[in-house]
Design a protein that fits this description.
This protein is α+β, with helices and mostly antiparallel strands and about 210 residues long. The chain has two domains: about 130 residues, Beta Polymerase, domain 2 (2-Layer Sandwich), CATH 3.30.460.40; about 50 residues, no CATH class. Helix content is about 40%, strand content about 20%. The protein is globular. The chain starts with 9 loop residues before the first helix and ends in a 17-residue tail after the last helix.
Length: about 210
C-alpha cells in the first residue's frame, strides 16, 4: 500500500530496520515480526527496487505496540482496519523511508504463502541489521507472490538469484500450487531452475487446482 517515491538500496533498508527495531526494543516487549515484500528480497542479495519496508505482525495489538514505539517519527497512515485487504495497517516515515506495519487476517491451510497462514513464520532466514538478527521471509515465497502478480521485472531477478545460490524445490513447488500459479509460469520456473546444481534437480510440475 502507498506510493513508491524512490528505490531503496540495501543500506537504506538495513539502517531503517536498525532504527525501527532499536525503538521497538526500547519498549521491552517481545513482538514477533517478519520482513516481507521486495525489501525482503533485497536484504537477501537480490538486486530489486524496493519502495518501502513491509513488516508483518501477528496481531493488531502488535501493530499498535510497534506503532507506539515509532511515535517519534511522522505517521503517514494511522493504524486502521482495511477490510478490502483484511489488514490492520499503519505507515511511518522513518528518516525518509516508508515503513509499513500490518497484519493480514485471512485463513489459509497452506504453510507456503508469503504473508498469510503459517508460511512466513515457518520459512524465513535471519539477516544481520546492526545489532539485530532480522527474520526475513524466504525467497521461494516472495517469488510466488511476484509470479501471481505476473511481474516479470521482479520474478526474473529472483529466478536468476535462486538459480545461482540455490533454492528449496519442495517449498517452491508447494507455494506455487497453494497460490494456483498458472501452468505456463510453473513451466517457466521449472525451465529456469531445474538445471541448477544448487537446488533439487527436479522441480515437479503440477497443474494448479481447478
Amino acid at each position: 500500500m502507498g506510493e513508491q517515491t524512490r528505490s531503496l538500496n540495501l543500506t537504506d533498508v538495513t539502517t531503517t530496520l536498525e532504527v525501527a527495531l532499536d525503538a521497538l526494543g526500547a519498549t521491552d516487549t517481545d513482538t514477533a515480526y517478519r520482513v516481507c515484500g521486495t525489501s525482503a528480497a533485497l536484504l537477501q542479495g537480490v538486486p530489486l527496487p524496493a519502495g518501502d519496508i513491509d513488516i508483518l505482525l501477528t496481531s493488531r495489538e502488535d501493530v499498535d505496540t510497534f506503532a507506539a514505539a515509532l511515535s517519534s517519527f511522522p505517521c503517514l497512515y494511522a493504524a486502521s482496519w482495511l477490510p478490502e485487504s483484511s489488514q490492520y495497517f499503519a505507515r511511518f516515515d522513518v528518516n525518509g523511508v516508508a515503513l509499513e506495519l500490518s497484519t493480514i487476517e485471512r485463513q489459509v491451510d497452506s504453510d507456503a504463502m508469503e504473508c498469510v497462514g503459517s508460511g512466513p513464520w515457518q520459512h524465513y532466514v535471519l539477516i544481520t541489521c546492526g545489532s539485530h538478527q532480522v527474520p526475513v521471509v524466504r525467497l521461494e515465497l516472495r517469488l510466488v507472490t511476484e509470479l501471481l502478480r505476473d511481474r516479470a521485472d521482479r520474478y526474473d531477478p529472483l529466478l536468476d538469484y535462486m538459480g545461482t545460490h540455490g533454492f528449496d524445490a519442495d517449498l517452491l513447488h508447494r507455494a506455487m500450487n497453494a497460490s494456483r500459479i498458472p501452468a505456463h509460469h510453473q513451466r517457466l520456473v521449472q525451465d529456469r531452475l531445474e538445471r541448477s546444481s544448487l537446488g533439487t534437480p527436479s522441480l515437479p510440475l503440477t497443474p494448479p487446482p481447478a
